[in-house]
Amino acid sequence: MSQVRKAVIIGAGPAGILAALRLQQFNHISPIIYEIRPEPTTLGGAIGIPSNGLRLLYKLGLWDALRDRGAETSTVSVHAIKGHVIGNMDMASWSREKTGFGYLRIRRVDLMEVLYDEARKAGIPICFSKHLTGIEEDNQGITVTFSDGTSDKADLLLGCDGIHSMVRTLYVDPNTEPEYSGISNIYSLVATSELPSAAASIDSLNVMLTTDGLLAISPCRASREMVYWFFSRELAIPPSGDTRDGWEERGKQQVETIKSTVLDLIKDSEGEWGLTMKETVRQTNTLRFYPIYHLPAGGKWSKGRCLVIGDAAHAMQPHASQGVSMALEDIFMLSNLLDSNPASLNEVFRIYEQKRRPRVNEMHQLAERNGGVRKRISPWQLWLKEIATSGALGIYSLFGLSKLGIGQKPLAYDIEEDMH
């Protein structure tokens, strides 16, 4: 295959725009992005980006703009069901020492505004209302066609269109389908001006285990004028089945009842945090529900001149905050390999999969393990878990185990080192 000069990218989410920026900046490839939505989406809550992703955003020149909007929240405070803190842990002290970056929580809409602004400045075209209907390949390149009758041809096609990827479904791997994880989230963004004054001083991720799932709250803007809270719990597939209609009905039921459910679960929570959390739930006007899906490991990632990356290839549960970071690692690995193997896409994709699969599988398993704390437990199990958590965090703090990098080593992963 000849050298890549033009890349068609399907999907104008974080993975698509970041891929376009990197390929243009580093590889001098001309990218064009096609997006199925009619305009940039404003949906989504707040995204967590740990050290491994932040280091790559810095290399793209995006760190300062994102830091100005997001909240650096590297510490997690664990609360008992009564409200008091049973332990604190810095999630990024060791990885920050290794990489220079901690953990950023940022609204998805803020992230996308920064990315669209950067794409605009770089002159990267983004075409909306483009529903992909076909992919064909020959010796000269790969051609995509859309429902409006238009088409485009390039040397490289990237599927950056998320877990329900049309690129994967139409061309790369039609047999791999998303699977429900058994966990669902309810989340909301609330202005701190509507909450007790203590809400504006929340500067870390605060979590509480309940008998019915995990409750958490965190700042998500640098100015601390907004908090992001979510309740993550085990939830069965709707009786009507794993269908869009079934989940829409289940979502409506959850949104209608979740405030009273959460308030009942934390009714004995006292102190400043307990009161703030209760008032945050009460003052929430808009709730969003989403069942968490993931892709099974082992699916195909490439075919001919086409590669799927990010969630389109290996969507995992969000419980390790690795969605954006995994996409960034994919992009940098691809970009570096294109630079070192300019004449052979086959060789690029072969080495890419050889290097990426172990890393992706490691983070996939971590996210799945972290999802386990969302499962329903009895009051006795919760009591025992609180005691165990308090003891573990106490030992962690007393002996300074953060210096050993326990739990943080995957966050110091360096894509450049993996090239050797």
UniProtKB/TrEMBL annotation:
Q: Which UniProt keywords apply?
A: FAD, Flavoprotein, Monooxygenase, Oxidoreductase
Q: Which InterPro entries match?
A: FAD-bd (IPR002938), FAD-dep_Monooxygenase_BioMet (IPR050493), FAD/NAD-bd_sf (IPR036188)
Q: Which organism is it from?
A: Talaromyces proteolyticus
Gene Ontology MF terms: FAD binding; monooxygenase activity
From the Swiss-Prot or TrEMBL record, give the protein name: FAD binding domain protein
> Domain of life, per the record?
Eukaryota
Concerning its family, UniProt says:
Belongs to the paxM FAD-dependent monooxygenase family.
Which residue numbers delimit the FAD-binding domain? 7-365
Question: Gene3D superfamilies in the record, alphabetically?
Answer: FAD/NAD(P)-binding domain (3.50.50.60)
